[in-house]
Amino acid sequence: MTAWLSILVPLLVMFFALGMERVEARLRESAVRQDELDDFLERARPDEVKALFRFGTGRALDLFRLRNRDDRRPRTERRDTERRQRIAS
After folding, report:
1. Ranges of each domain in the chain
2. Is 0.90 surpassed by the pTM of this model?
3. Closest-CA residue to 40 (of 31, 29, 52, 27)
């Protein structure tokens, strides 16, 4: 019985450690970069701050990235996008 426990316990600890490593890797990938968060906090609009308060960092940063991506497009494309959003609302 003691022999089984001496084999089983290290195996269980090893599998637990491997599982936790996978969880940690997923968390590391989904983490927000510090410079991106600083940029958000400096230049956030009111709707993005509301999203941060209501839905958390992920949704607020999605809105912020979307706005930054839209700022890089030509003005006519932005107007078309705004019209489509108004029509959809």
Report:
1. 1-31, 33-89
2. no
3. 52
